[in-house]
Every structure is written in structure tokens, then in C-alpha cells.
Specification:
Two copies of one chain form a homodimer.
Chain A: E1 11-16, H1 25-37, E2 42-45, H2 50-63, E3 68-71, H3 75-81, E4 85-95, H4 96-105, E5 108-113, H5 121-125, E6 128-131, H6 139-151, E7 164-166, E8 175-177
Parallel strand pairs in A: 1-2, 1-5, 2-3, 4-5, 4-6
Antiparallel strand pairs in A: 7-8
Helix pairs in contact in A: 1-6
């Protein structure tokens, strides 16, 4: 996995379409936290889910960074207006390796992941339809691998603004509390 | 991501501990399908969940391969008896990069992923506690990235015994039906 300087990296956001607030809050939470942990800037969520956005906000207040979940009412309009490369992750798409060079040259990428039912228009609106393997698995897995391929696995260390950071350990858990400025 | 010949690859299985059949069937299904899609041989599931195993079996009958979900009653005994390298995926562990060379030399690996609550004994029983990033995210994401790092992203093509296979496409869906022998 090539490591790249921060300035060379594409900026990445994620759009989840077809979220069902009643049915899959935990799966969408995993999508959101995966996006955040692997360096995406935003999760755009259709339809909006204020509770979920709040939960992810609380994670950010503890562990740092500026990631946020933003609701999107009209996902088609949003995708059409996106200033960058729209990449739909789907097992029906082209192999990731075939598209990776183009993605690495992009300045800004929007990864789109569906839920159980993907609106068919998405295949037409995306610049690329890309498969992370061509077997049924998980939008969380597909997103994680795509992000790790483009950004690498994040290194240890406190994120900006964090109140807590993990100190990697061979066994057990160690969490460091980070004093706020002036504390 | 280094591509390796099949003979050089570690054999990989996955153990999920603390599955809650009532509460997280979909998350564990994502764990199972991710394990399968990225080349693991088995998901061992504690506690057992016959319904989930059946659902994953049906995926295998359509899409091929020999992956299966097996219930485990005593996960500690199972981990102690495992003939290979036991790797607990946890955000508190050492960076993946620090452990990857040892993992690539292993003949057989058991990745252990917890649910919301991880039994503390796991940290002591695992040979390695390994973090895929040191931020909270998802056991599905951690497993996917670990498997993709060790095995690569699977290439297109029908799996042995499949009745169906995806034909990668730039737009839309194409699924090929594979005639059974003698059909």
C-alpha cells in the first residue's frame, strides 16, 4: 500500500443513500465511524438522521478531528453537484485495481455506498462503479478497504482537539487523557 | 499491497466472540460475508447462531466456495486449542504495520473480533493484539482491511461450485448463471 504525503492525498467524503433510521442505525454508525477513522472529511447521509449525527459528533469530541455527519435530502441533486470524482462502491462494478490510478490522481472523491437496496440511477450518476471484490459482503468493508488503499492505515497518535487518545499496547487498554489548552 | 502466490498465503479463519443473536444479526452477517469474500475459510461464532449460519450457507450455494459458519460454545478453550497465530483485532493494540511481517510468515491465522463488549481475557489469550487504526470504528472494517492487506482484494471470476458469478461492468449489473455439470 503506497504511503503518500498529505498534500498529495485526495480529499474524501462519503455519501450513504437509503439509510433506514429505524432499521440500520448500527450499520450506518459503522459506516460513519469507518469513514472518520480512515480520514474522510464528511459522511453525507440520505435521508438525514439527527440522532446518528449527534452520536458521531460525541465520538469526535472525545477522539478529535473535524469529521461530521450531514443530512442530505435530495441525493441525486447532491451527487450531480459534487465537485470531484463520484465513486459508487458496488460488487457489480469494475475491479478496484483498474480504477485506482485515476482515483489517486483525483483531488476530491465522493464514495457512495448504498444499503440493502441501491437506487438504479446511482450507476448512471457515478463517474466510476467500483467493486472491492465481486462477492456479496458489506458496505462497511468495501468502504474501509477503499479508504485504506488510498490513504493507508492511520498511524497512532492523538487527533487535533481530542480529549483522549489510545496508547498502543501489546496487551490490554491504555487511554491517555489530553489536557485542554490552559488546563 | 503485495500479491502473493496462493501457496505462500496464510490460511485464515475468523472468530467472533460475544455475538448477540437478537441484537446484531446484521452486523455479524457483515462480519461473516466479509470473512468469506476476502478469502477466510471459516467464521467461528460464539455463541452459535444456526439461523445466521444457514443464511450464509445460502450465499455460498449461490456464489460458490467452501466458507462456512461454525458455532463455538467455549471460545476460550477454542482459542487455546487453535493451531496457529491468534490475532485479536482491537483499537487498543499495536499498529498493524508492526505485526504484518510476522503475520505474513504464519501458516494459519485466527482473527478474533469482538462485539460491543470484548471479554478482557482475550487480550491475554491472543498472540497479538493488533489495531487497524487507533480510533473507534467497526469490527467489519478492521477485519476487511486486515484480510485485504494479507490476501489482496479478490479478483473477479466465478468461485468453485458457484451457480452465479458477477461480470464486472462499468454501469449496471450483470450476473452470469453458471450451468451445473451435466446440465
Amino acid at each position: 500500500m503506497p504511503r503518500r504525503r498529505a498534500s498529495e492525498r485526495p480529499r474524501i467524503s462519503v455519501l450513504r443513500v437509503g439509510h433506514r433510521a429505524g432499521r440500520d442505525p448500527r450499520l450506518t454508525t459503522h459506516v460513519a465511524l469507518t469513514a472518520r477513522a480512515f480520514g474522510a472529511e464528511r459522511l453525507y447521509l440520505h435521508p438525514p438522521d439527527v440522532e446518528l449525527a449527534g452520536r458521531v459528533d460525541r465520538v469526535g469530541r472525545q477522539w478529535g478531528g473535524t469529521f461530521a455527519v450531514e443530512g442530505v435530502d435530495d441525493w441525486k441533486k447532491f451527487v450531480r453537484a459534487f465537485d470531484g470524482t463520484v465513486v459508487h462502491l458496488t460488487m457489480y462494478g469494475r475491479p478496484f485495481a483498474a480504477v485506482a490510478p485515476a482515483l489517486r490522481r483525483s483531488k476530491s472523491i465522493l464514495f457512495v455506498v448504498g444499503g440493502a437496496k441501491v437506487p438504479p440511477q446511482l450507476y448512471g450518476l457515478a463517474r466510476y462503479n467500483v467493486a472491492i471484490g465481486h462477492q456479496p459482503h458489506s458496505e462497511v468493508a468495501a468502504l474501509a478497504v477503499a479508504l485504506a488503499e488510498l490513504r493507508g492505515i492511520p498511524a497512532p497518535g492523538a487527533w487535533p482537539g481530542a480529549t483522549h487518545a489510545i496508547v498502543p499496547m501489546e496487551r490490554g487498554k491504555s487511554v491517555e487523557r489530553i489536557p485542554a489548552e490552559g488546563e
